[in-house]
Amino acid sequence: MGPQFVSGVIVKIISTEPLPGRKQIKDALAVLAEVAYVDMLEGDTECHVRFKTPEDAQTVMKSHKEIQIKNNWKFEVLTGDHEQRYWQKILVDRQAKLNQPREKKRGTEKLIAKAERMRLEKTQQTSKHIRFTDDN
């Protein structure tokens, strides 16, 4: 089904320098309100954050001064035409993701790939150096 259009839940964050990762942004804002999704590419100077409710977005906007000063970010709630275009982008991106061909593995192929992954993990684990300390 995908995300349903709700007005006033998208907040645009603009920064003078590249933003940290998606998880760091989500963690920083999750302290204030419930974040549904952070839309950004690595190294971008702006991103869009979708909150669960318009009230969550307003909570962040009201208390954004401390976050803005700490991280040097500017916040802006999308409205009107910008908001409509962004929701269109969400739907287009979602369709593109769902229409991507995916690799289908079945039966023995799937088991062989899983066994190979497990073997690789095991060899990486055993090849670690064991260091003993002498506490005399």
Automatic annotation (TrEMBL):
CDD domains: RRM2_LARP7. It comes from the Eukaryota. GO terms for molecular function: RNA binding. Keywords: RNA-binding. One of its GO terms (cellular component) is ribonucleoprotein complex. The keyword RNA-binding applies. PROSITE patterns: XRRM (PS51939). Signal peptide: none annotated. Pfam families: RRM_3. The keyword Magnesium does not apply. InterPro entries: La_xRRM, LARP7_RRM2, Nucleotide-bd_a/b_plait_sf, RBD_domain_sf. Residues 4-117 form the XRRM domain. This is LARP7 protein. The gene is Larp7_0.
